[in-house]
Design goal:
Layout (H helix, E strand, L loop, with lengths): L9 H9 L3 H21 L4 H18 L8 H20 L8 H4 L15 H9 L3 H12 L4 H8 L3 H26 L1
Helix pairs in contact: 1-2, 2-3, 2-4, 3-4, 7-9, 8-9
Length: about 180
Amino acid sequence: MSSLFDYMTENEIIQECLKNKASAQEKLYALYSRRMMAICLRYTRSRFEAEDIFHEAFVKVFKSIHTWKGGSFEGWMRRIFVNTAINHFHQNRKYFDHVDSSYAEVKLSSSDNVISDMSNQELLDTINRLPEGYKMIFNLHVVEGYNHNEIAEMLNIAEGSSKSQLSKAKTYLKKLIEDRLISAA
């Protein structure tokens, strides 16, 4: 048997969430859970860590839904999820891997066309192998579309550090892809 919430628009569901209706919150969760979990997975090393961020971010969405001012609701939610991942990064920074920068400085001669031969999952898996700091900057800039000034503000770093980390992330990523190709040959 279907419920009234199965036939509601996103805006109607949001209005019911504003009234703290659990059934509307479940519908909103079901509507966005896969896309928001994908964001969490991009910023973490493990599914367990991503699930922590995911649940924390959804709680924030429901607690602050009254602050949404219109526009893209998904974009508003995305920002909450990304900011929750960034906060998690700041809180756990001391536990993240430290990078041997000499590894990232290796100059590669391989063609960028190898990426087009990779499946989406292989590419995501390779990006997930980046050290945490590199991965954070890479995701914020390349995937989410933030500029270096915005990233610098979010992470409390210099804009030049964001640019440098992105450059190193790209070099490191190329090295990982090259290593993958060598091991596959």
